[in-house]
# Entry
Amino acid sequence: MITYSTSTSASDLQGILSLQQQNLAVNLPPDEVLSQGFVTVTHRLEDLSRMNDIEAHVIAKDGEQVIGYLLAMTVQSKADFPVLIPMFELFERIQFRKKPVADYHYLVVGQVCVDKNYRGQGILDQCYEAYKNRFKDKYDFAITEIAIKNQRSIKAHNRIGFREIHRYNAPDGVEWSVVVWEW
# Structure
């Protein structure tokens, strides 16, 4: 039976890390990266724990196994992830509804992933529903950025209701889409 909740234990966080490692682009064959999607950033247990102490991550579990997750990241976590500082700086420059994103009280979807054996069953949709229910009264919207080459993720986020507000090329040549989900 699949359940949706927030991460409450070290075991939950370890489950997130295990699923993350299985789906890092650098750990997947190129054809799977294109067809199944991927995650980009590697987290440490300490990082996930600090983030979770601020806002708990949403997880899907089959029994005790974490089979999906949506990480919750606030501006407070900015300094913990140097690789993401440019994203937060970008939020100070790009506009959403005629004012800088940074002027809003927003929640960053730090990363999403569903175990490949559970894809196509609506788990991501249910995770996002739990995410919205948990955070809609505290934050104006959820925001994230997705590599354009990750078309599976782009399509899934469009289906959920995310809309692109900005697109840019990173210094490494990767094209990114910044998307917002208004509750």
